[in-house]
Design a protein that fits this description.
This is DUF4817 domain-containing protein. About 60% of the residues lie in helices and about 0% in strands. By secondary structure, the protein is mostly helical. Helix 1 packs across helix 2 (about 25-35). The longest helix has 18 residues, at about 110-125. The protein is flat. The N and C termini lie far apart (about 70 Å).
Length: about 130
Amino acid sequence: MSENGEQVRTAWQEAFHSPPPSRQTIYWIRNKFDSTGSVSKAPKSGRSKTSVTERNEMLVAMAFVNCPKKSTQRASLELSIPRTPLQRLMHKLKLRHFRARLVHGVLEGDPDRRLQSCELMRDQIANE
C-alpha cells in the first residue's frame, strides 16, 4: 500500500462525508492485510463443544418428549451428558424443563366475576 494514513483518511472523508477512522486503525488494518491476506477475524481458538452432537441432540429430544417433567440433573445423569451442554442442547431444541404447579385454583364463579369486572371497566372508560 503506497498511500500513507493521512491520504487514506482524506480519501475516506471525501468519499463518505463522515469522520474517518483513526490513523492507528488504518495502519492496523493494513498490517493485518499484509500479514494474513485478509482483514477478517481469525477463527476462534479453544476447546470445541464435543457434547453438542446430532446423536446427543436426538437423545435429549427423546428424553424430554417422553417425560417433559424430568429435571436437567436427572436427564444429565441418565444420558451421561454434563449439565451445561444438556442445557445448551435444550435451548437449541427450544425445550423447557418445567414442573407443573397449581398456583391458584379456578373456582366455579371465576368466569362470571371476570366478565363483571371487564364490563365495569368498559363502562368506566366509556363514561370518561
